[in-house]
Please model this.
Amino acid sequence: AVLFAGCGKNAAEQKAADPQAQELLAQGTTYLKQGEVVKAVQNFAMAIKTSPDYFEAYYMLGETFIHLKQFPQAQAVLIGAVNRFPENALAYYLLAAAYEGSGKLMPAIVAARKSVDLFQARKDEEGTKRAVVLLGALVQAAKQQAEDDMVRNAAQEAVKAAELPAAVK
Model:
């Protein structure tokens, strides 16, 4: 996933966060830079608890889980983000990345498509480009998965068909 620091916020989401939440986020970012991931995650989670309307905390926690390849945790955080910030393109983009990491291509495609739509509505060209690239990669992966499944199913059917005459004898 690509870091989008500062992206994805609309005017309603840029309202001042609780100073304690901002401090927790700053401390968490410092911990992350120092490689103290557990402390960083704890701080980001506390920032969300302290100030549930502070998107940046969801962003940092979700992004951290994605980088740790802890995709179910990332999904949980980012589903909370899209529920709280339904017009936030970055929240959907990150959710798509989390679903992709779990191999859940159809929900990833839906989230990526929503991120494209929201980035376009905001006339965010860079965000739109990145979201379109992600969406294209997800669609291609889903097509490849479907083709692989068809080949695997055809091979299984061929084996069954070849075994049938022996079973009849």
User: Anything to note?
Assistant: The first helix runs from residue 19 to 33. Residues 1-14 have pLDDT under 50 and may be disordered. The helical segments are 19-33, 37-50, 55-67, 71-84, 89-101, 105-121, 125-168. Residues 106 and 142 are 8 Å apart (CA to CA).
